[in-house]
Amino acid sequence: MSRKGIIAIISGFSGAGKGTVVSQLVQRYDYAVSISATTRLPREGETEGVSYFFKTKEAFEEMIQRDELIEYAQYVDHYYGTPKDYVFRQLDQGRDVLLEIEMQGALKVKEKMPEASLIFITPPSVAELHRRLKKRGTETEEVIQKRIARAKEECSYMEKYDYIVVNDGLEECVRTIHDLLQSIHFTKRNQETLIRDIQADFDQFQ
Ligand code: 5GP
After folding, report:
1. N or C: which end of the chain has fewer CB within 10 A?
2. Using one digit for the tens of pLDDT, what is the confidence trace for 169-188?
3. Whose CA is nearest to atom 3 of ligand 1?
4. For residue range 153-166, what is the model confidence (pLDDT) as tens digits?
């Protein structure tokens, strides 16, 4: 029986470690991960078409005009958005798709696609969040402060998520999220075809 792909959105404060968690999920299991478009500049080691599709503001605004994005949002002075094409193609092929996006975008996707599961990753404390952002060393203290201010705002929306997972260790966090994602296949929404098949089977049974 063919299994439908599920769509899951992974969000978390900047520095919560969600990028690492998502890349581990993709390396270890068969998840498709959506590649976003952004107007921010590449960080060292980031590659076009792998990390992001890096766009000028004008090119990004054209994508909005052409309705090519499932959602987009502004985050700390830049646009970020999810191209429709790849996500819908993967879901149609039965693959589970992960979107690693911030909160405004996550809530927009949930509005359009109520079947999407929203997973929020948080570090164990704010002090730990600050420590991780500093350790990453890719942002200035000013940007770190902006990201912490943004995290404080985002904190009030955590309740809108379906699942909250603490990232207090990579291994455990990756395993927890994988188990969680697999269990979503067994929700009644994702078993509608099976339910109908079994009911039809009973109708045929003499
Ligand atoms: P970063 O600049 O650290 O790569 O990403 C900043 C924030 O933008 C992160 O919270 C990340 O999850 C979010 N983000 C990345 N891609 C998208 C996207 O396509 N849409 C939205 N709404 N947020 C995104």
Report:
1. C
2. 999 999 999 999 999 999 99
3. 14
4. 989 999 999 999 99
Q: How far is the CA of 81 from the centre of ligand 1 (A)?
A: 8
CA dist 196 and 178 (Å) reads: 27
Helical H runs in 68-157?
A: 84-92, 103-112, 126-136, 141-155
Angle at 175 between CA 158 and CA 87, to 5 degrees: 65
Ranges of each domain in the chain: 7-34+96-204
Residue among 53, 69, 75 to mutate when testing ligand 1 (max atoms within 8 A of CB): 75
Q: Across all residues in the chain, what is the average pLDDT?
A: 93
Quote the tokens at residue 199: 């009911």
CA dihedral 4, 114, 191, 97 (to 10 degrees): 30
